[in-house]
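Sequence in, structure out.
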Amino acid sequence: MSIDPNAPILKVAVMADGRITVGGSPATIDSLHASLKRLAEQKGVVWYYREGGQSAPPPQSAEVIQAVIQNRLPIKMSSRPDYSDAIGMDGRPITDPSAGKIGPPSCVPVVTSPLH
């Protein structure tokens, strides 16, 4: 998947207690859906962070990922709240020096199958 390095970025975070932020501001799942729809029209990319990534996720986490999938958006997953790293499909950090940049390999292609 080729991603424009100048593509708009939407930073989405899910806190351990289930709160969602979009661009650093509190959001609801409904407002997130609207933001993701706009981002898809702009051919943007989601940068995603989940607080407490090593513990069980809150239900809102699956809702956020499902919304990203529904909008067919590429996603960069990060274990840091400043989005300074990238996590691969295997759940391990990507050690490639380009991991902090948009584009392969730091972005995961859109997943079209249901989450298991």
